[in-house]
Amino acid sequence: MPTLDSSGEIPATLPVVEIRLLVQKFLDEGWQQRDIKVSSPVLIREHDLMVFVFKHLPIVFAEDVLLALFQKHYLLRNSFFMLQELDDLRYRLRPTAFGVELHASFETVEVVSGEPSGLDCATSKAIDSSDSSAELRRFYTDFKHYREANAENVAELMASFWRRFESQDDIDEALKVFELPETTVDWQIIQTRYRALAHQHHPDRGGDADQFVAVTSAYEVLKTRYGAKA
To answer: Which of 70, 99, 108, 142 has its CA 20 to 30 A from that of 211?
Structure first.
């Protein structure tokens, strides 16, 4: 893996520009497929974006599955926030736990913080100026966080961010991954389903690594809502 020096700068061997260009290409194609009669945002799933971007780049990620997920996730989110600075995008970006929403450039994108985390959870603001978005942007544009992540702390690191910024849309997406209806779900059902899906898709058992990542991501999101009630 490329390493970072103590300043937290981007290592020269990490192709962040190439990643950003591939991310923009995928988002542009998703936006072009939008029905102009539909005013709802376009949701680009991070799993699909991850598969597209990293199959084109010879980056060696960590052997630990969750840590590799975090590294890929971090690089994609870094691209999201860098792309927000461009004036020539035909859409606005709203990162979510499961990917990114594309909104028409003239639309006002509102965000509300999730679980209490020291942020003003009662305030809804445009994403470009919200406290939650500013904190996320600081995290995903300072590469010291990429450097400091390891197999021991990455699960809690990811879960803590989902606890802060979860939304109902993220919960709905996670339930879709688990193929569970919200009306009948509880934490025990989620845990049982997770064990079955993780066993089915675990790379060490010949499963699909990308599906395992999607299942693990969904589990961490659902834990923020249902695990706290257990």
So the answer is: 142
